[in-house]
Design goal:
Elements (H helix, E strand, L loop, with lengths): L5 H5 L4 H14 L5 E2 L11 H12 L12 H15 L8 E4 L4 H10 L7 E6 L3 H9 L3 E6 L10 H7 L4 E7 L11 H11 L6 E5 L24 E6 L12 E4 L4 H10 L6 H12 L3 H21 L15 E2 L4 H7 L4 H12 L1 E2 L1 E2 L14 E4 L4 H18 L6
Parallel strand pairs: 1-10, 3-4, 3-5, 5-6, 6-7
Antiparallel strand pairs: 2-8, 7-8, 9-12, 11-12
Helix pairs in contact: 3-10, 4-10, 7-8, 11-14
């Protein structure tokens, strides 16, 4: 058989989609499954955004656009991103892509050279595409653990020990997937203090959940002194406006915008023109729907955290943003004799009819941090109540009697 490249064989995936396919198969077979596995708002895209797409179609706006995006969209994204961060961002700093995800790979490719030993520091647990793209681009992945005792924020001292002469990029994600952790201003100031000693290090600030903050304030590293020029700000329409399938994301950095534009020319050519006009309406139109969704997510967060903390053997910190709960299930695994969170995940799916993700789907285990699972609360209150009740009932039924 003709061989594949090492790059192809090592390319990772996003297990939320793998588990989702498993859930869909079980549901086709007639199984009743409540799913918490996918990070996708369950709300409809706002009506005025839908209407803008319809009008674009009827106006014949079907063709290519400039690879960097339509000028009006770049300007609107620059204004919206700037307002949220207290910055003046020029339209020419912004590039529009087919979702925010491609900019992860484009950034790594722009600041590292394959096979040169260039290192990229990334959070663990973390969005799995970070490590996948680091490896695919021929760089060296350097995991940085997020610890429950710090509410899943970086320890600046641990960061400092991982930066060396080959470090080229640090990936930050706040609010964070999968933990829902939020980096405070003090956290970011401590990170900036470390980075001041290492001017060769770029920062990829994944801020796709920037509008979904429930406690405290959203702060971008780019807003701190000395951090703006070296920070790539990444955001998009998917989470804020329930536009995941529309595939519209933004990246802002003056030096790298031309590089990102060339990457888009080499790959997708441009983002969908229809989706871009829809995103323009989302960014410049009424924000009532986006705020209403944020309020619903906030209420769902409070509900799921309260219910999870009532499940035997579960302990769930209250996440500051995004729409994920990340309960510690170490004791629950011991109660039912599950070797780890992945075994618990499988048993919940096949024996309780509840789909979650295990911590191994978000990077290598961190010694001493125990077992965790991720639940997305981007689903209805009824599903949250019913699903967590199933989990609690299963843990009680499957628990082994204590040894005497």
């Amino acid at each position: 058989m003709t061989a594949l490249s090492r790059r192809a064989e090592r390319l990772g995936t996003e297990n939320a989609f793998v588990v989702l396919a498993e859930v869909n198969r079980l549901q086709r077979e007639g199984r009743d499954v409540i799913s918490f596995c996918i990070g996708q708002p369950d709300f409809l895209t706002p009506a005025h955004v839908q209407q803008a797409a319809i009008e674009a179609i009827r106006a014949g706006k079907h063709g290519y656009t400039p690879s960097a995006g339509i000028d009006e969209v770049r300007a609107a994204a620059a204004a919206a991103m700037g307002r949220a961060r207290g910055l003046e961002i020029a339209p020419e700093e912004v590039v529009v892509g087919a979702g925010a995800k491609p900019f992860i790979g484009y950034t790594i490719a722009a600041v590292t050279d394959p096979g040169a030993g260039d290192e990229v520091i990334f959070p663990v647990p973390g969005f799995p595409i970070y490590e996948s793209q680091i490896v695919a681009q021929g760089a060296v992945p350097v995991p940085l653990p997020l610890r429950e005792a710090r509410r899943f924020a970086f320890d600046p001292d641990e960061l400092a020990t991982r930066i060396g002469p080959r470090t080229r990029l640090l990936i930050l994600n706040s609010p964070h997937n999968p933990t829902g952790g939020l980096l405070s201003r003090a956290d970011l100031q401590a990170i900036a203090a470390v980075l001041e000693r290492h001017p060769q290090v770029w920062v990829y600030a994944d801020e796709i959940y920037s509008r979904l903050v429930y406690d405290g304030e959203f702060v971008s590293l780019a807003s701190l002194p000395g951090m703006r020029e070296r920070t790539i700000i990444s955001d998009g329409a998917s989470k804020t406006y329930a536009m995941t399938g529309w595939r519209i994301g933004f990246a802002a950095n003056r030096a790298l915008a031309p590089v990102f534009t060339r990457w888009i020319t080499n790959t997708e050519s441009c983002a969908s023109q229809i989706s871009q006009w829809a995103a323009l309406a989302a960014l410049t139109g009424p924000q009532d729907d986006a705020e209403a969704m944020r309020r619903r997510f906030h209420a769902r967060r409070d509900l799921i955290v309260r219910l999870l903390n009532e499940v035997p053997g579960f302990h769930c910190e209250t996440p500051g943003g995004a729409f994920y709960a990340w309960p510690n299930v170490t004791e629950a695994c011991a109660r039912i004799g599950a070797a780890d969170s992945e075994e618990l995940r499988k048993r919940l799916l096949y024996e309780a009819g509840v789909a979650v993700l295990a911590d191994i789907h978000f990077g290598p285990p961190i010694p001493g941090e125990g077992q965790h699972i991720r639940l997305s609360y981007a689903t209805s209150e009824a599903a949250i109540e019913s699903g967590v009740a199933r989990i609690a009932d299963y843990i009680r039924r499957a628990s082994r009697p204590p040894r005497r």
